[in-house]
Fold:
Amino acid sequence: MKLTVLIIGCGDIGINLGHELLEEGHQVIGLRRNVEALKDTGITPLALDLDSLEEADAKSLPQADYVVYTVSADRFEESAYQSAYPEGLKRVLSVMEQHKTPPRRVFFVSSTSVHGQQEGEVVNEESPTDPTSFSGTLMCEAEQALINHPLPGTVIRFSGIYGPGRDRLIHQVAEGRVAAITPVIYSNRIHRDDCTGIIAHLIRYQEGGETLADIYLGSDCEPVTMHNVMMWLAEQLKVEATETMQSPLRRRASKRCDNQRIIDTGYQFRFPSYREGYAQVLKEGGFLELNKA
Structure:
């Protein structure tokens, strides 16, 4: 059956998801402030600023079978996060619930930053959330707004997203900078293509008559220390670690994300660990050829 999927905040993740859904024969509408990036993607563009969304006007958003809310804050400031997450999502929900045929489900792309654990604890969807930053706190508020809303909703907490164009770690390692062995800082990662793969999978899962949970952790199958990831990258790039990064890592949470719930739905990771994922990024980004030169 052909579905209509509305992707709100249709950036990198949204465009990639759109391509996948279009290939399956669905209609995809991409909402963003500037729709120039959607040109020639096959995604139907919808230019709109959520700050100007009229909650009382059901026609301000198109009807859709599924809504994916994957908005990014303009900047790392509390006001920007407040606007992008709890306030923006609540506006969208207020509009969508007025539709004659409301969406079958709303997906909210959240973050594992809502888990503030710092001692390498294993966390899953049932673990307490104790965010240590305003960003995590506001993400939690948005999550609860969806979970408590009458419309069916599912939160997907993605860990550190990497992939094409998301290669800051590679550049740091290429400069000879790596994380220290101690303190032990666990890193949880997910390739961009698995982010979109999980969302598309959960839509298919519901369409197949299955019941979705309120929350899923979207993280690959191998939590690993930041030091080990960077040393592995150094080996692939054939560079020597000459500088140890300390201070930025002290501010980070350290936890190990358990992805068993999404695995139990039958999802198979395209990149089960950082090795497969970064190997693809290194190859596609030309980093290995650059190193040879």
About this structure: The chain has ten helices and 15 strands. The mean pLDDT is 92. Residues 158 and 218 are 4 Å apart (CA to CA).
